[in-house]
Amino acid sequence: MLHFVLVSFVFFTSIRDGCARKGVTSSFVRSEWPSVDIPLDHEAFAVPNGHNAPQQVHITQGDYEGRAVIVSWVTPDEPGSSHVQFGTSEEKFHASAKGTVSNYTLGEYKSGYIHHCLVEGLEHSTKYYYRIGSGDSSREFWFETPPKVEPDVPYKFGIIGDLGQTFNSLSTLEHYMESKAQTVLFVGDLSYADRYKYSDVGLRWDTWGRFVEKSTAYQPWIWNTGNHEIEYFPYMGEVVPFKSYLQRYTTPYLASNSSSPLWYAIRRASAHIIVLSSYSPYVKYTPQYKWLAEELTRVDREKTPWLIVLMHVPIYNSNEAHYMEGESMRVVFESWFIKYKVDVIFAGHVHAYERSYRVSNTDYNITSGMRYPVADKSAPVYITVGDGGNQEGLASRFRDPQPEYSAYREASYGHSTLEIKNRTHAIYHWNRNDDGKKVSTDSFILHNQYWGNNRRRRKLKHFLLKVIEEVASS
Ligand SMILES: *[C@@H]1O[C@H](CO)[C@@H](O)[C@H](O)[C@H]1NC(C)=O
Ligand SMILES: *[C@@H]1O[C@H](CO)[C@@H](O)[C@H](O)[C@H]1NC(C)=O
Ligand SMILES: *[C@@H]1O[C@H](CO)[C@@H](O)[C@H](O)[C@H]1NC(C)=O
Ligand SMILES: *[C@@H]1O[C@H](CO)[C@@H](O)[C@H](O)[C@H]1NC(C)=O
Ligand SMILES: [Fe+2]
């Protein structure tokens, strides 16, 4: 009897947490626009007016806690000024910071002058205006700093992956901007410029920088790399991985004591965000492995209740595309994700949407014989949002039958939002691009793994005491 009551209690609580066991494969088939890149002369890639006017403006968090921003941009004609003027009221820039400028070649392609400028010592929850460039060609933008790192501060993140530069990408970007989220967690594969050859690779990095500027100049995008950033081009003598990406996109990796811009962590509002590189060594003894082991001990759930991990290659995904490519990272890191109660892991790579239940497969090793993921309340939710809309098109073939761990899957373009309410609750949405209109499709309440579980444990204890009393008195 006690056993029965217990089992039904556990079953009931898991349903309440959005864990009903039957997954959904959505039959919705999006009538997509052709997966071709927007032509070069399209206004989405418009070059700003004026001699040497700054273009491809983008910002990212510049420190561990959210009181610094890195402003980056490209000047096409000459190096120009690397200064950012900034202040808290429009047109009154009382402070200034000096950045660096560099240029690079990729085959025959010669880049413009790439500026990165760290703007630090900012106040929390403050709107800053900033100006870059000089004279008639200068340009002004603004951003808002996040609230101080505290456990109950609300914050809204957007999650975008595998964006590219097609009309579907544009639709995703515009829908994302309507969501009023405050920061993008980007899960890799930015421009898809590597699909071009020779000088066109650099050219398509430039168009992508201009394409996303309407968002990236005003709010931080937290960058992560994918396979399309590797750019291994022996045919034109370019064999050093991530060259274009590392020149153009910076990350605050030193602030989390990482030894590489490709993996790092930040704290923002009530979230601790860990960025992992699927295409850098991560097995035991490698720098990334050692760094993650240390970073996980720095996570303080009393300060940042939400622990979010970003990677490019999904660990749980049942699409035919890139099937099991994430398995090697699962073997190395899954037990840590469970031990440290990661709330949610976002990945891209597969060009379709999929969400898992809380599952793990840590019992599986080459002698155990156990080889199927099992429900695991301590495990993260795994979400794949590689559906930004790039030129490779959708990955529409899912494995059949849908595995038990898969909660929802659909081959449509879109983006996600994660709206943190307080230390226990966050509201998650996946928003499908439905032929130009934004449609919220998959949504659920994400209960915090650290605070939610403590609460549940107390409830369970209370419940068991009552049952034992009842059994004893009957
Ligand atoms: C950078 O630009 C300068 C001209 O300002 C040029 O002389 C130099 O070759 C460029 N370097 C690279 C790596 O393209
Ligand atoms: C990084 O290391 C330095 C020196 O050991 C230390 O002072 C700093 O607190 C560390 N940063 C983090 C985020 O742990
Ligand atoms: C592998 O599985 C066996 C059998 O279940 C277990 O005894 C052993 O501890 C496992 N090894 C590791 C490294 O997990
Ligand atoms: C946290 O947010 C949820 C959803 O908005 C709400 O129901 C709950 O009462 C909040 N908890 C606290 C402690 O404020
Ligand atoms: Fe990818």
TrEMBL record:
Domain Fibronectin type-III, residue spans: 53-148
Transmembrane segments: none
Signal sequence interval, chain numbering: 1-20
InterPro entries: Calcineurin-like_PHP (IPR004843), FN3_dom (IPR003961), Metallo-depent_PP-like (IPR029052), MPP_PAP (IPR041792), PAPs-like (IPR039331), PAPs_C (IPR025733), PAPs_N (IPR015914), Purple_acid_Pase-like_N (IPR008963)
Keywords for this protein: Glycoprotein, Hydrolase, Iron, Metal-binding, Signal, Zinc
Cofactor: Zn(2+); Fe cation
Molecular function as annotated in GO: acid phosphatase activity; transition metal ion binding
Enzyme category, top tier: hydrolase
Reactions catalysed according to its record: a phosphate monoester + H2O = an alcohol + phosphate
A Pfam short name: Metallophos_C
PROSITE patterns per UniProt: FN3
E.C. designation(s): 3.1.3.2
PANTHER family: ACID PHOSPHATASE RELATED (PTHR22953), BIFUNCTIONAL PURPLE ACID PHOSPHATASE 26 (PTHR22953:SF55)
Family: Belongs to the metallophosphoesterase superfamily. Purple acid phosphatase family.
Protein name: Purple acid phosphatase
Lineage summary: Eukaryota, Viridiplantae, Streptophyta, Embryophyta, Tracheophyta
